[in-house]
Amino acid sequence: MLYGAADWDLPDVADEYIGTYIPVDIEEEIIRTKDFYGALEKYGYPNHHDVLFLGKNKCYSDAHFHDSYAIRRNVFSEYRFETTDEGKFIYDEKGFKYRQITDFLDEYGRGYKEFDDYVSKLIFDGMYSLKNVKVTPGHIELDGVNYSINDDPTFFDTTNVQYWLWSETTSHCALVRNGLNGELHEGVRDEYRIWSPKEEVKAIYPLMFLSSADPLPWFDDLPESQYRLLRNLVYARHGYIFKSADLKAVFSQFTWYEPDPHFSESMLSAEEKAYVKKIQQKEADLKAN
Question: In what order do the strands lie in the sheet containing 19-23?
């Protein structure tokens, strides 16, 4: 069947529903795993759209943020809209649900930077308190170097990679998750023109992937050294002044850390003391094995 330009023209969309939408299952997977590329691979195109940009008379999407396309009018006619206490939603013709994350669209009817900003906040919700890291729509600044965020996983090895980044000074770099730490690796291109992270670590960002929503996080499979960081995180939040240079360097990177010369163990709650003991037992078990 041949389609004409009018086949992509939509009837007027109510102003309240104009904006950028994220698939709810992708959103929930990112919150759970902090893995954007993995969420795309698991739930995204071709299962359903990876994003929706809904304008007054056009609706666009983008397959893996590599191939942009418009939604045809006859397909869009099966979409339905819903407003609840949790926000505004679209259900597509297959019943998949999308959440409105902003009512903004640029002059081209897209909201890529706003999408990047929203996803970055899901992934790095605890990183915003790091002094040497700054996240802005479409970009992340690490140690003073500004990188563009690459949503498109095509031609990139995304194993354990939270984001592929690019800057004029370093070309492509991979921000890799190692437990709760972030690692920056330079990228290298193979004979098939696929970018992969180099084995050498360019920079380490301790506790980058802590979640601000979970003050006492628990993980069963962290590197042993990171359990030490989690154990001391409890003390850092109460202003304990560290004697170990490495711990002092790690927690001094957080904006919330305020050394308190009057620190006392009595400042810890019963829950925090139990958490510390649980981690100490985990550390003992790891050493025994």
Answer: 67-70, 59-63, 52-54, 19-23, 97-102, 87-91, 80-84
Both tokens of 88, joined, read: 């505004």
Hey, how many other C-beta atoms are within 10 angstroms of the C-beta on 44?
Answer: 21
Of 136, 221, 213, 146, nearest in space to 180 by CA: 221
User: From residue 166, how far is each of 149, 191, 230, 241, 274 by CA, in Å?
Assistant: 7, 20, 31, 37, 43
Encoded tokens for 280: 């100490």
Beta bridge partners of 189: 195
Q: How is 201-267 classified by DSSP, letter by letter? A: -SEEETTTT--TT-SS---SS--HHHHHHHHHHHHHTTT---SSHHHHHHHTTBTT----TT--GGG
- What predicted TM-score, i.e. pTM, was given to this entire model? 0.85
| 4 φψ region: left (φ > 0), alpha (ψ -120 to 50), beta (else) | beta
Q: Could you read off the pLDDT of 54-104 as tens digits, one per residue?
A: 999 999 999 999 989 999 999 999 999 999 999 999 999 999 999 999 999
How far the first Cα of the chain sits from its last, in Å, is 65
Residues 221-240 have pLDDT tens digits of 899 999 999 999 999 999 99
Cis peptide before 23 (omega within 30 of 0): no
Rounded to an integer, what distance in angstroms lies between the CA atom of residue 4 and that of residue 98?
A: 27
Question: What separation in angstroms does the CA of 273 have from each of 23, 26, 96?
Answer: 40, 36, 44
C-alpha 222 chain-centroid distance: 19
Q: Which residue, among 224, 209, 221, has the nearest Cα to 288 in the 3D structure?
A: 224
Q: Which backbone phi and psi does 138 adopt, to 5 degrees?
A: 85, 0
> How far apart (Å, rounded) are the C-alpha atoms in residues 182 and 179?
8
DSSP assignment of 198-218:
-SS-SEEETTTT--TT-SS--
176 burial via Cβ count (<10 Å: 0-12, 13-18, 19+): middle
